[in-house]
Amino acid sequence: xxxxxxxxxxxxxxxQADWNAPTVVGGQGARxxxxxxxxxxxxxxxxxxxNLGHQHPRLVEAIRAQAEKLCFVTSAxxxxxxxxxxxxxxxxxxxxxxxxxxxxxxxxxxxxxxKIARLAAGKPRGRIIARDRSYHGATHLAMALSGDSRxxxxxxxxxxxxxxxxxxxxxxxxxxxxxxxxxxxxxxxAVGARIDAGGAETMAAVIMEPNAGTxxxxxxxxxxxxLRHITSQRSVCLIADEVMxxxxxCGEWFAWQRFGEAGRPDMMTLAKGLTGAALPLGAxxxxxxxxxxxxxxxxxxxLTYCGHPMSCAAGLAALGAYEEEGLIERSRTLGRSLFAxxxxxxxxxxxxxxxxxxxxxxxxxxxxxxxxxxxxHQPWPSTPPQLKALVAEAMAQxxxxxxxxxxxxxxxxxxxxxxxxTDAIVLLDRLLTKFxx
Length: 437
Hints:
The protein has 437 residues and is α/β, with parallel strands linked by helices. It is built from 13 helices and 16 strands. The chain has three domains: 37 residues, no CATH class; 266 residues, Type I PLP-dependent aspartate aminotransferase-like (Major domain) (Aspartate Aminotransferase, domain 2); 71 residues, Aspartate Aminotransferase, domain 1 (Alpha-Beta Complex). It has a seven-stranded mixed β-sheet, with helices on both faces. Strands 11, 12, 13, 15 and 16 form a five-stranded antiparallel β-sheet that branches. A four-stranded mixed β-sheet has the order 1-2-3-14. Helix 4 runs parallel beside helix 10, helix 11 packs parallel to helix 13 and helix 12 packs across helix 13. The longest helix is centred in the C-terminal third of the chain and has 22 residues. The chain is globular, with a radius of gyration of 21 Å.
């Protein structure tokens, strides 16, 4: 623990008096090196963002080279590396003829996506539909978008023109279905019904996560294509929040691509894996049609550091690393192996009620008090004390697991070794036996 940091830094998502984290001084691949000399296997990519692991040499070199060439210029001026990265993102997403608006991270990418959607629709206060049990960031508009119980009392979604619909949470389907496919379809239909209730002419956009999120919900395969169909029928902009699910996390460059053209959104938001977390950067990627709608309208949006050349250099290097090292395909392969291993864990541990994921290196274990009734182990979003003890013991044994409420979230760097991943699952198996006998 860094005594100095505990005394002088405000840390996010924590009670300050309880913060007691170790100090990281370095890293390599999927491992972090601590100030006390220990090495920790990172099974969450820190905040599900270090998709390329830690201190990836290609990123380090790109940042160094850009620093020697040009450290900074505002977006009022051009920068070669900014244009190159925007073009690369449009190519990878197939949004040829579109445009990219760069931000500093995921929350402001989502905020600006909403602003751009309203501008494109000509509806400055147009309605926005998001979903319960989602997460789009922790600034005020992003909190209003998020159906997050932790921040619900801090913001009034209605004041921001935001409405929420139930999520495609198949394990506890809010529509009463016991079928994953049906729950996905009904969740999409609920969006259509909400659009129709207020009139499509008042609607600016629907913003939702296509797959992975810290909410721990992995939508059934029926959800996203049906949502795209429903919004297209009503000529409503669909924004895919790919902040967490992008860049191989779910086995594709972007999670919606698993559904091909049937899943293509009008806009998507990016951050996290965009630079492999080496430097802060977010982006809003617009289709050609959306870009055309704002081409001759004033965009009243801006951030001093948007499209920062250093960050764009890291982003361009990250895209090269994903492609040349075959990490998108590797995520799919290891993801299938991880999902099978977790299924085996579920058969041995009654506390595991559900295993979700399997498309890439993102998976969720939901712990329950009773598998037959699916009774929650603790009320959401409280964390069972046994799970806290499990995480502490895992850290003492050199592995870092991420949790939220009753969930264990597994999202290791895409560069994690197969043996490292196996060792982490073996340890998790042992600790589940110890803390949830």
